[in-house]
Amino acid sequence: MSTHVLVLGAGMVGVSTALALQQRGHHVTLVDRNARCLETSYGNAGIIQREAVRPYGFPREWRAILRVASGRGNEAHYHLGGLPGIALRLARYWAHSAPAAYAPIAEAYERLIAHCLTEHARWMDECGAQDLVSRNGWLQSYRTPAVWHAAAAEALRVADRAGLDCAVLDGAALAAAQPALQAPMAGAIHWKDAWSVSEPAELVERYAALFVKKGGVVLVGDARTLRQQGRGWAVDTASGSVDAEHAVLALGPWSDQATRALGYKLPLFVKRGYHRHYRRGATLALPMLDMEQGVMLAPMKRGIRITTGAEFAPLDAPSTPVQLHRAEQSTRSLLDLGEPVEAQPWRGARPCTVDMKPVIGAAARHRGLWFNFGHAHQGFTLGPVCGRLLAELMSGETPIVDPEPYSPARF
Ligand SMILES: Cc1cc2nc3c(=O)[nH]c(=O)nc-3n(C[C@H](O)[C@H](O)[C@H](O)COP(=O)(O)OP(=O)(O)OC[C@H]3O[C@@H](n4cnc5c(N)ncnc54)[C@H](O)[C@@H]3O)c2cc1C
């Protein structure tokens, strides 16, 4: 039965959900406080990570934990003052990363991410986004031979089990694949199934334009005004109050605030991240993660986008882009990076859950309220398949994957 649905949040997850609902005959109004895509779906590294069959667990090895705790590693940074507020959630994240708890999580994640390319391809074909997309995979590179050997053996095991295409490149093969490199590296893993996008926000905006072309409505409004009204929901927008039978919260890192306001205590937290572009004549042939320095280098329309690892800090605490400064320094030993394009780095936040899986499904205590958030490190990848999954649940269709591992009721 066709109904009117409010989708709150127009990042990759919200726009994809709106498209999937519209495809099933629902009348959909998409509401965001910004008229453009400016948040997490804007600032990511733009990789559609078909190979990411294992979500990022909390390091369990003491050497890795000590590296982060002592501030020696660049893959993570934390605000000491912010830790007490998230300590319990980090402890649960740590517990879910133990091998016995992690195994079923990774199995569920793998079943979901297996559909990421086909679900993106549907909307890319319809909106004409091929010019933004490269289908050549990405490189996970290493500076130290022993670390590269160990990682390559593990990558081959994962690829074999999950049916992924990956090649192990030695230093010479890496230099050939990435001609802009000016210093030797030990080697790399080339994940060949993944796609990359030269301007992530533009892809989201093309999906949103497709939604509008097909009759969808996009309005500027504040999700904090969401309230129950009659048998449904209402929200205030710049065009007045809009009501509908159903409301979907797809607010990425702001979902915690919205769900708390409605009385839900979901174990959500954020891992903040930064980016900045650097422009010079040479560019990268493929996105490349400098694993041991915790630096992702992504070729974008605006130059090479450096993105950083996880920063554990409150969502709105002032920016502390120490990881970006270190990333810039370490990258200058590999590449002729040039000057930064922006005066200040961009800052965003990955919306995370303690069990590494997104929250997709019906809210337990409110009729007509639905959740789709918590996609952490892979929300740009997962938006379309998770949008489809939620739309199927809302429409009473057979879901593309078993929805139980993602149910809000698991908390
Ligand atoms: C540095 C970095 C690199 C990353 N790289 C990758 C990658 O390569 N591949 C990948 O798959 N993922 C990557 N990610 C993760 C990915 O970007 C996120 O998981 C994804 O963008 C989340 O999408 P979303 O739609 O849930 O959230 P968002 O894109 O943040 O969208 C949420 C929307 O809600 C709106 N909103 C918030 N509050 C309100 C309100 N009160 N009223 C109305 N609207 C509101 C915001 O304006 C925003 O548009 C990366 C993340 C970071 C930070």
UniProtKB/TrEMBL annotation:
One of the Pfam families matching this protein, by short name: DAO
Database matches in SUPFAM superfamilies: FAD/NAD(P)-binding domain
FAD dependent oxidoreductase domain: residues covered: 5-393
Membrane-spanning intervals of the chain: none
Keywords tagged on the record: Oxidoreductase
PANTHER family, per the entry: GLYCINE OXIDASE, SARCOSINE DEHYDROGENASE-RELATED
Listed name of the protein: FAD-binding oxidoreductase
Species of the source: Caldimonas mangrovi
